[in-house]
Amino acid sequence: MRRSMDRHNKIDADKRITQRFLTLNEYKNCDTLLCFVSMDIETDTYAILLKAFEDGKKVFAPKCIAGNEMRFYKITSLDDLYGGAYGISEPHGDTQQFEGNDKNALCVVPALCYDKSGYRLGFGMGFYDRFLSEYDDIYTVGLCYEEHIMPSLPHESYDISVKKIITDVRTIDTEV
Prior knowledge:
CATH class: Alpha Beta
Number of domains: 1
Helix content: 10-25%
CATH topology: Rossmann fold
CATH superfamily: NagB/RpiA/CoA transferase-like
């Protein structure tokens, strides 16, 4: 479904998702942003990253390490990224690592699709569930195209739902 999206429709949807995200109080009030660096089939995060740099946020991007572990490292520009594991742009890993002591952190979580409860279908490696299980005080937001919101998805006890989902059409508050 993602690969078959019309390029112009994807660009428009990405802009609407970015605008919605940047108006969130959770974004405006966060000091630290943990954000995935998008691949071409994902919701574009480059405009979000650039705005976060401009807004003076501390920005951390994920890096896959040691097989199936993921950590976030500080970046100060897009120049701090390189082609890493799985063809995903990631930080070199020689900068400050996110340790969880940032009181006002927001994490943007990728997914192929979400359900209305905030559970997601990812790429099946469990990186984000393992990472977020260590930091349960981080506010989480998912980005997703509206047509990829499902009524429900199967999930296990170790799966972690996001607190909000931003689509090109609406904001879904999953904390009900």
